[in-house]
Each structure stands twice: as C-alpha cells, then as structure tokens.
Amino acid sequence: MVEDELEDDTFYPIVPGHELAGLVVKAGVNALEKFPVGSKVGVGCICESCLQCKFCKENSEQMCEKGFTHTYNDLIQFGFAGVNDRKN
After folding, report:
1. Secondary structure of 7-29 in the HEC alphabet?
2. 66: closest CA among 76, 53, 75?
3. How far is CA 22 from each of CA 13, 40, 55, 56, 77, rounded to the nearest angstrom?
C-alpha cells in the first residue's frame, strides 16, 4: 500500500497497519461516559459493519452480508465507525 501496490486503489494519506491502541486524550460529549480521558482503548482490523444482518447479530462482523470497513485503506460505509459496546 505504501508504494501503491494495489494499483491506484490506495487512499492517501495512509498509515499502514490494522490494529490500533492508545489512551483517550479527548472525548466528545456522547463518548465521554464510556471513554473517559485516560482510558486505554483499542481497535481491531474491522471498525464498522451493518450491525443488522444475521452475521453481525452473531458477533461475526467479518462475515457481514453488506460488507465491513477496515481500519486501513477503506471508506466508512455505514456512518457509525468507532463505538462497540460489546463486552466480549
């Protein structure tokens, strides 16, 4: 991807990698209760899916019938990437 190995399918700017971890330094009003400043957070390689199909309801977003959004070189499809309340 860094050298456009996907032949014009790379979206720039790009940060290679697919799993992210960090500390919350600032949060919006809707996220502050679940993610207070100082919280440890992590993101897997899939950051959104439809959350409506049978696979999403079975915790198998990678099989989403409508597709899913990777954390790298992908476009947000459903408009709610970011928050997953799942405890498991």
Report:
1. CCCCCCCCCCCCCEEEECCCCCC
2. 53
3. 20, 6, 29, 26, 24
Decide if pLDDT at 65 tops 70.
yes
Q: In sequence order, what DSSP letters do the residues of 35-83 get, joined into one string?
A: S-TT-EEEE-SEEEE-S-SHHHHTT-GGG-TT-EEESSS---SSS-TT-
Average pLDDT over residues 15-27: 79
Distances in Å between the Cα of 12 and the Cα atoms of 3, 15, 55, 79 are: 11, 9, 31, 20
Enumerate residues 6+ apart whose C-beta is below 8 A from 60: none
Q: How many CA atoms lie within 13 A of 35 on its CB side?
A: 17
Cα 68 → chain centroid: 9
pTM score of the predicted model: 0.52
